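In the current project phase, we have settled on a layout for protein records. One protein thus recorded is set out beneath this paragraph:
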Amino acid sequence: MKLLILDAGHCLNLALARVAHQRSDTELIIEPGLSVSAEKLRELAPDAVIIPPLSGPMDIEPAAVIAHGEGVDDCLAACQETATPLVWCVSDQLYQDGFDAPIDEHVIPAPRDESLRRLIAIGDRIRSGHPHHLIVRLGPLFALEGSHAWLGGLIDSLMAGDPVRAAQDVIFCPTSADAVAMALVGMLHQLACGSQAWGAYHLAGTEPVSAYTFASMVRTQLATRLEGLGERPSLGEVKPLKHHHDQPLRRVLNCRRVLEAFGVHQRPWRLEVGRMLDEWVQARGPVPDEGNAQS
């Protein structure tokens, strides 16, 4: 299977590259931009095009959201012209106001923000005009490297001693980029083998949590690992933010349909964070002894 991945450097694309490296049946082609032409698709002949998510669309300039949507629109037109399957990953923030109960796949987001509504309109066009599509809604992605990686930047801030401010009253399900990459490759292989389970799916980690609790757990686990190596780091403090004074906003994705259709299980985010922290410590290597360094 040959997959064309857009937006080189995105943390999900790096995770997909790691998955493909471990398999002999998956080839990746990574393009730097966000859009692709029909001529390019005819030249490369991929089995699917994957667009990684725009992380935190509520927290960035509307112009960036609109530009992302224009790229997706261009890609959709090219995929329609060449009958190429399209996979579009989107942020759970499109459910702007959240829901009290876990959000099922059939629930179409209805955000108030104008730029976010443009993305919903693109999703409507994909569903109505391109049968071979996957719209994959994700919880907040985390990884050690790549753009939109979250965990890598969080570790850097903590190690630098910088304060980390995180919302205490927004509840979501952090999602490992590695877990999403493995799921997407497995889903696309099943579809290539004759499954007709195209459509919208939710992928997220288990255990709803606030950004504040997530960051606090990362800080505790990081300190534990470093102290186990004999270090006494002065990690930055995690400070809570409150955006919703009446009650927490819950943005929890129900991932039952992806399990039923493809056998994809949610990965516990705590286990994934622990694994990544172990990898970070191993890659960092031993810290030189200050006394020996000065002698």
Observations:
- The domain at 2-143+175-205+252-267 is CATH 3.40.50.720 (Rossmann fold).
